[in-house]
């Protein structure tokens, strides 16, 4: 009896007509949704163009503000000491340029710097009220700028002292101590201690000096604070330079 060997059927090749019909259906689908697809592509291109335009504008604006701030700083730092007229002219030009940056480009990286330097320049021009306004404006607009905020509050306290307003100066210096990460807290403590001394309050001064020496031992003000603490301690002691009082001697008996 003969046996026939079963041969598995060969796989048929992929139906090319089926592939063609599938491709045609895809093309037809694209044709049907061509409108929405074109609208979506146009919106993507438009959004990309807007974002690119905004970035380009911000870059140009920041560059313009930086150039103005640099020009103002150059005028401010190159005031000749031997030519008062030229120095005054440079200071006025610096103030004008700082004001322009602060007013026209407040959202650029140069905005907070310009406002801080504007306050400093106004102090140099003896325009104390204007300087106070500039510093307060900085506090409101750039309160999160920790690197400069402490310095602004310190300068604000200094201007208040120039105006003779000790209470406001104390508030400004105390505000420095409330700023996390402020780099000039040692200066604020020292100024508060000096204000306490000037008001004849040695206990308050000792407290600030002690905090300064303990918290910031490497500060350049720590040594001076330690000297002031010793001086205040000496003032508490009785005056040892005076001789002790001489007891009264009994006089001769009076004659009857």
Quick structural overview:
Helices cover 71% and strands 0% of the residues. By secondary structure, it is an all-alpha fold. The longest helix is centred in the N-terminal third of the chain and has 44 residues, at 34-77.
Overview of the molecule:
With 256 residues, the chain is an all-alpha fold. It contains ten helices and no strands. α4 runs antiparallel to α5, α4 packs parallel to α6 (146-162) and α7 packs antiparallel against α8. The mean pLDDT is 84.
Q: Which consecutive residue ranges, at least 5 long each, have pLDDT under 50?
A: none
> Which class of secondary structure composition applies to the elements?
mainly alpha
Strand content: under 5%
Helix proportion:
over 70%
User: Could you give the distance between the termini?
Assistant: 181 Å
């Amino acid at each position: 009896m003969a046996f026939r060997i079963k041969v598995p059927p060969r796989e048929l090749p992929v139906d090319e007509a089926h592939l063609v019909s599938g491709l045609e259906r895809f093309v037809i689908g694209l044709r049907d949704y061509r409108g929405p697809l074109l609208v979506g592509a146009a919106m993507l291109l438009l959004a990309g163009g807007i974002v690119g335009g905004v970035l380009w504008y911000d870059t140009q604006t920041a560059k313009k503000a930086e150039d103005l701030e640099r020009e103002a700083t150059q005028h401010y730092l190159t005031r000749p000491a031997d030519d008062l007229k030229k120095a005054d002219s440079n200071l006025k030009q610096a103030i004008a340029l700082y004001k322009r940056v602060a007013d026209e480009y407040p959202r650029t990286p140069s905005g907070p710097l310009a406002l801080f330097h504007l306050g400093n320049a106004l102090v140099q021009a003896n325009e104390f009220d204007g300087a106070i306004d500039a510093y307060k404006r900085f506090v409101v607009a750039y309160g999160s700028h920790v690197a400069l905020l402490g310095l602004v509050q310190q300068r604000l306290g200094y201007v208040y002292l120039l105006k003779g307003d000790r209470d406001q100066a104390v508030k400004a210096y105390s505000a420095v101590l409330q700023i996390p990460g402020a780099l000039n807290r040692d200066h604020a403590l020292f100024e508060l201690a000096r204000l306490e001394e000037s008001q004849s309050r040695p206990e308050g001064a000792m407290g600030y000096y002690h905090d300064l020496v303990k918290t910031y031992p490497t500060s350049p003000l720590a040594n001076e604070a330690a000297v002031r603490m010793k001086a205040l301690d000496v003032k508490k002691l009785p005056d040892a330079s005076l001789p002790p009082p001489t007891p009264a001697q009994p006089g001769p008996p009076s004659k009857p």
